[in-house]
TrEMBL record:
Listed name of the protein: Hydrogenase expression/formation protein HypE
CDD domains: HypE
UniProt-listed InterPro entries: HypE, PurM-like_C_dom, PurM-like_C_sf, PurM-like_N, PurM-like_N_sf
UniProt record similarity statement: Belongs to the HypE family.
Protein source organism: Vibrio tritonius
Length: 332
């Protein structure tokens, strides 16, 4: 009997259909020695570990530069990388709406299988639930990640006056990309999401002897949210050079059209790093091997209130505040 073209309730019912569905869609793509038909995976870890969990619900599911599957892998492994933890193991659970097309599900899972390769991690267990049509919007994904910490105490609480701040590439791409897709904007040059796994570049930084005080991927709330959280955590100010912060021209255009600031828009493959001043040049060199747009954008300074200060090329200054409200719901 041929396989149906859409997800049916029986694919989450625990019987033969579910067994065949899980093996055909997931086991075949995520195959590794740890992934077995058991209720739990048996793993081995050495030393201090990091653990993170996340859920993904994006509209549209597919966008220029990625889809909900690449978001799930990148988002989870990036959270580990930001505390200098090498991604090792992931769990992956799907909530699927009855009637969701098999062809779209297979594209998502294929993307996940490809996205996880550069991290060296593997998916070791998961779960699938199918809900009646109308009870969920196509597909939601939940992941948990576990990694081995290679450099302890990488944290916003470790910022020090004199630290130099760098960004790994141009900002605001993911938010602008999703917004353009939702509004069906026709742009001279298509904006691609920056969605990507960050472990390769972080691994290279650590291997080069860089000892970051803090790292953070600038997802929801963008650069502005990360830097405000950092200032609060370490009770410091930051002096940022507006002209040094890289923003693509197409992203600027979308921001002007909708009245947004690029500092507030989400990223999914861009991170901010704070390093001792003597390591700034080496850090920039490593970052630019991966993305030429990487830049030094400012420094940590003493001052009150504990907020980032944006300095314009004309000498004016203003606080870069937290984003207010939900700019773009269901961004990741």
């Amino acid at each position: 009997m041929s396989r149906p073209q859409q997800v049916q309730l029986s694919h989450g019912g625990g019987g033969r259909e579910m067994n065949e569905f899980i093996h055909e869609i997931f086991f075949r793509r995520f195959e590794n020695p740890f992934l077995k038909a058991e209720d739990a995976a048996t793993l081995t870890l050495n030393g201090q570990v990091a653990m993170t969990t996340d859920s993904f619900t994006v509209e549209p599911l597919f966008f220029a530069g990625g889809n909900i599957g690449s978001l799930a892998i990148a988002g989870t492994t990036n959270d580990l990388a930001m505390v200098a933890a090498q991604p090792k193991y992931l769990t992956c659970s799907f909530i699927l709406e009855e009637g969701f097309a098999f062809s779209e599900l297979e594209k998502i899972v294929d993307t996940m299988a490809q996205e996880i390769v550069p991290t060296g991690a593997v998916i070791v267990c998961g779960d699938t639930k199918v809900v009646p049509k109308g009870c969920a919007d196509k597909v939601f994904i939940n992941t948990t990640g576990v990694g081995e910490i290679l450099l302890p105490n990488v944290s916003a609480s470790q910022l020090q006056v004199g630290d130099v701040l760098l960004v790994s590439r141009d900002i605001g791409r993911h938010g602008a990309c999703v917004l353009a897709a939702r509004e069906s904007l026709r742009l001279e040059s298509e904006i691609e999401s920056d969605c990507a796994t960050l472990w390769p570049v972080v691994n290279q930084l650590l291997s080069s002897g860089i000892t970051p005080h803090a790292m953070r991927d600038a997802t929801r709330g963008g650069l502005a949210a990360v830097l405000n959280e950092w200032c609060q955590s370490s009770n410091v100010q930051m002096r940022l050079q507006e002209q040094a912060i890289p923003v693509d021209a197409a992203v600027k255009g979308v921001c002007e059209l909708f009245g947004f600031e690029p500092y507030d828009l989400a990223n999914e493959g861009t991170f901010i790093i704070a390093v001792p001043a003597e390591q700034a040049t080496m850090t920039l060199d490593v970052l630019q091997r991966f993305q030429p747009q990487a830049a030094i954008i400012g420094e940590v300074v003493a001052g009150s209130p504990a907020k980032p200060v944006l300095c314009s090329p004309w000498g004016s200054k203003r606080y870069l505040d937290f984003p207010v409200g939900e700019l773009l719901p269901r961004i990741c």
